[in-house]
Backbone:
C-alpha cells in the first residue's frame, strides 16, 4: 500500500512512519524522501511489499516546494533551527527586480554544495552527526537542476518562492546561496513539499484522518 501523508511541523519522517505503523498495525512501513522536522507537506509512505517501490518513486524524481526565506542572517544549519553565525547590516534593501534577477540565475543545471547539517554519509557517519560534534566536514558539490524558481511574495526581510527541483537538491542551500548573491545572508524559515513526481500534497491525508481512511478502505475490500 502506498499512502500519501501531509507531514505536520515538528515531526521527523520517522515519527510519521512510527505513527502509521501503530495505526495500521503493520510492522513493515517505510517512507521515501526525508523531510526535516521543521518542514511540512508530502511524505510518501509504503507498507509491506510496497516498501520496495519507495526508492523508485523518488529517485530521479522532480520535487516542488513552497519556501519562505529570511534575509539578513546566516545560520549554522541554513535554516531557522540553526544558531546565528552572522548578522548583516543591510544598507541596500533588495528590490523585487533584483531578487527576480538573482532567482533567475539559479535556473538550470549546476553544482550545489550541500549543507553540512545534512544526512549525507561521510565514512558511514551522517554529516549532521559529525557537525554537532564539532568535527571538520568536507562535502563535495553535487550536480542538481533547478527547473523553476519563482517569487510569490516579498516584504523585506521575508521572501516566498516556489521551486521545482531535481532529486537531491537542498532548498536550504538555495536559501543560503540567495543570501550570498544578494549580499544580505539568508536562511530557510519555512518549507512545504507540495509535489513529488506526479504525487500531490492535495491528495495527502493528515495523520488524524488515517484511522477513518483505513476504515473506509477495509469496508471497500
Residues:
Amino acid at each position: 500500500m502506498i499512502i500519501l501523508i501531509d507531514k505536520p511541523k515538528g515531526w521527523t519522517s520517522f515519527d510519521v512512519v512510527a505513527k502509521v505503523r501503530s495505526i495500521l498495525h503493520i510492522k513493515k512501513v517505510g517512507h521515501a524522501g526525508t523531510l526535516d522536522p521543521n518542514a511540512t507537506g508530502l511524505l510518501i509512505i509504503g507498507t509491506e511489499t510496497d516498501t520496495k517501490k519507495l526508492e523508485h518513486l523518488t529517485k530521479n524524481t522532480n520535487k516542488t516546494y513552497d519556501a519562505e526565506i529570511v534575509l539578513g542572517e546566516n545560520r549554522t544549519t541554513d535554516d531557522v533551527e540553526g544558531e546565528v553565525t552572522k548578522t548583516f547590516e543591510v544598507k541596500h534593501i533588495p528590490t523585487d527586480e533584483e531578487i527576480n534577477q538573482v532567482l533567475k540565475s539559479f535556473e538550470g543545471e549546476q553544482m550545489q554544495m550541500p549543507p553540512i547539517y545534512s544526512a549525507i554519509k561521510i565514512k558511514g557517519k551522517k554529516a549532521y552527526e559529525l557537525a554537532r560534534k564539532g568535527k571538520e566536514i568536507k562535502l563535495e558539490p553535487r550536480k542538481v537542476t533547478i527547473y523553476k524558481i519563482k517569487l510569490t511574495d516579498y516584504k523585506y526581510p521575508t521572501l516566498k518562492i516556489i521551486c521545482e527541483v531535481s532529486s537531491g537538491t537542498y532548498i536550504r542551500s538555495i536559501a543560503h546561496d540567495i543570501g550570498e548573491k544578494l549580499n544580505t545572508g539568508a536562511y530557510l524559515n519555512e518549507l512545504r513539499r507540495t509535489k513529488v513526481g506526479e504525487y500531490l500534497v492535495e491528495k495527502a491525508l493528515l495523520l488524524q484522518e488515517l484511522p477513518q481512511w483505513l476504515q473506509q478502505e477495509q469496508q471497500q475490500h
